[in-house]
Amino acid sequence: MTNAHSPARLQVMWNRLLAAVEEQGQTLIRAAFSPIVRECGDISAGLFDARGRMLAQAVTGTPGHINTMAEAVKHLMRRFPTAQMQQGDIYMTNDPWLASGHLNDFLLLMPAFRQGGVVGFTACTSHLVDLGGLGMGPEGSDIYDEGLLIPPCRLVSQGAMNANLMEIIRANSREPIANEGDIYALIACCEAGANRLVETMEEFGLDDLEELGGYIIDTSRRGTLEAIANVPNGVYRNVLRTDGYESELELHATLTVSNTGMHVDFTGTSGCSGKGINVPLNYATAYTVFALRCIVGPDIPNNAGSLAPFTVDGPAGCILNAQRPAPVAMRHTLGQLTPDLVFGCLHQALPDLVPAEGASCMFDLPMRHTPEVARAGGRSFAIEPVHNGGTGARPYADGLSTTAYPSGVYGSQVEITEAVAPVTIWARELRPDSGGAGTYRGGLGQRIEMSSANGAPFLVFLSVERLKHPALGRAGGHPGAAGRIRLRGATKDIPGKCELRVGPEDHLIFETPGGGGFGPPDKRDADAIALDLKRGLVTEAGVRRDYEGGKK
Known about the structure:
Blueprint: H1 7-31, H2 35-38, E1 43-49, E2 54-57, H3 63-79, E3 90-93, E4 105-114, E5 117-127, E6 153-157, E7 160-161, H4 163-171, H5 176-204, H6 210-228, E8 234-242, E9 249-258, E10 261-265, H7 281-295, H8 304-307, E11 310-313, H9 332-335, H10 338-349, E12 363-364, E13 367-369, H11 371-375, E14 382-383, E15 386-387, H12 414-420, E16 423-430, E17 446-452, E18 458-463, E19 484-487, E20 497-502, E21 507-511, H13 526-535, H14 540-546
Helix pairs in contact: 1-5, 3-7, 4-5, 7-10
């Protein structure tokens, strides 16, 4: 054991770990091949002590990757005991119930060695664009339809790649080069984190992370409990109605607040779908806890200590606790609605802190070539562009337009999408009047129009929400605009969940949802309304409709 350090020195070392893990995350982004990683930041990175407790996570990354990673490390450590680990080993899995909720997310774990022993771990997750099967869409009937499942295994053994495994991954993908490149980026991320961790320990003379880890976890847990103490004890319930696939669904949450923590129970939630919108509990938990932490102790860094007071459960077989072998490819469709679900509970306890509902679910649009194009020798591709709607208005400010909450990923850029896929994007623009009216206005959605660029059809795998049930306002605010998907000139809209064939002459138009408003619209400042008009965020007709009787 090292000698005891002062609290000030421990804080300096804590800050160093936070800097190291952020560098780790940036390494992954810069080395990645796929646009959804290098452009959108669909990743996570974290540092763990020798017991597998998360000490630091990169701010860059999505809650669905970060908070699931905190538990996934423990699963891998049980499968591969520390005593049997060798320097240069890296372990991997994409098991949805162990890692990040669906097959396309690969999670890696690497032990960090100092003086011949394991002193900690580095872990990371990112999204791979294609793993065979039916692909990134909701059409699978079970997990086996959805692609290649890799149980916990050694990806690297004492520095040597598992060549057979890499060959299997390449052989089961429509984008083998991108997948291979992204796996090497994940390896680089692990190595960067392990190197920085060991360098930090050497610089500060640490033989192990026991004292520093204890300080980080105890301090964070104590601060989180103090923040929870500011929430009135009680039981709060909310129901969120969603579009679903075969039929509309209900998500239920019961939030119980006590002096020792906050617990969310999904009892009452609809049962699983026959399609791939089901959510493993690890993923639903990740986003539920993230939402609570956005309001309760948001300035406390995420680690094992700050996460410990938050627990989540739900009946096995409900759509937020899907059991094997349920299809889960598009688990984010409903999983990313859980923050709005629990916000509805938390608003009852803290009405002045919780925002209105937002678009929440990403409008990510996995697309690829059609089978006949590939057979004829045409251009093959697979890509997953991400587009976002508006966030809910806050109790003190407007919502954010075309901003991903809760996922945190960046929207795909037009130039990048056109460079890697044979599509032309004819328009990408804000949707005026799509933000819900209120004292504070919801963020705007966007309108995007695209078509084939090479005269060949392509497939789009749709799994989006808020087409039937828009984001609701709060405290008297109005709902945001619903999303909409259609082909130009068609008389009928396209449902939010299906496999869509876009013909050579078709123009696909999709409009992302707006966020709900907060507070009564008639209390919105007249100058703010005038500025909205000037900026084109609302139209004259929208003002007359939403602010009738208010200040003009």
